[in-house]
Amino acid sequence: MTTTITHPEHGEDFTTSEGLRHVLVRLHEAGPASWEHDPTAGALVAFAADKYAGLARKHGLDPWETASAAFEAMRNESTRTARDPWAVVTRAVQITCVAEERGQGLLCSTHQARRRKYEDVHDPERMSDRETPLSDYHPSFHVYDHIDDPDTEDDRDGTGPQAQELSALNAVDECVALFTGLGWPPDTARTAIHYVTTALSRTHSRLSAYEALRHDKYALAFLDLTRDTWAVLLHALLGNPHPALQAMPAGRGILMRLVIGEPICSILHDEDLILSIALAAPGRAR
Questions:
Q1: In the chain, N or C terminus with fewer CB closer than 10 Å?
Q2: Both 105 and 195 in a single domain?
Q3: In what ranges is there compositional bias, type Basic and acidic residues (predicted)?
Q4: What are the tens digits of pLDDT across the range 123-155?
Q5: Rounded to 10 degrees, what is the CA torsion of 103, 108, 111, 113?
C-alpha cells in the first residue's frame, strides 16, 4: 500500500531540512493546539509515516509507530535548532525502533530497554529451544555425589582438586576482571566475553565458535569494536585455532585454561598474551 501525501494549499515544503525547520518553528510559536488543527502538521506526520515505513517493517513495527516517534522528536527544541532537523528526526526514530524491538524481545517496557545496563541481557528463550538441553552442559545444573569418595573431606575444606577448579561461570568472571584490569572498559569487556561464551555454548566447539565469530560482522557493530581488537579478543579467549598449537597454552585460550584449573597468576605470566590484550583495549591511543 502506498501513501500519497498531499501538501497544503499554502505550499509549505517540509521535505527539506530548512523547510522542516520553518514548519516546526511556526507550529511551536502557534502553540500546542496547532499540531491538532494545522493542515500542514497532519500532512507532515503522514509524510513521516511514509518516509519511515521501511524502517518500521525492518523492526517489526507499524509505520504509524515510527510516525509517533518522529512526532515526539519534532516537538523538541533541539530538533528545531539543529543543523539538519531531518537527520535528528531520523536518528530519534532509529533509536526508538531499536528500543521497541528490544523491549518486545526482553518482555519489558521501551523505557527500560533504552537503559545501558540491559544491553548485555539476551532475549528470553525456552530451555527446549536448544538442540542440546541446557542442563547437559550448564554448570548450574550439575550435582556431584561424594559418597565413599576418599577426597570428600579435602573438597569440604577447600583443599581438594575439585574445590580448586573454576567453574565455567567463575571462568567468565575471571576473564572480565582480567580484561578490565588491562584497560578494557568494564561494560565492553563483560558484554564481549558473554557474547563469545554464548556462541561457544551453542556450538560446543572452540574451533567452530572461533570460525563463526571471526566472520560475525554484527558483533563488530553491536560491540563497537575494530576488526583487530575483535581478533585479539577471540585469540585470547578461545585460543589460536592452528592444529599444532592445540595442546599448548596459546591454542587453549584463557577460558579453557581457567576451566581446567590453571590459576590466574599463571596466565598473568604469559607476557605476550597480556601485552596483546592491553594494546587492543578499546579507546587506547595507537
A1: N
A2: no
A3: 117-133
A4: 666 656 666 666 666 666 665 544 444 444 444
A5: -50
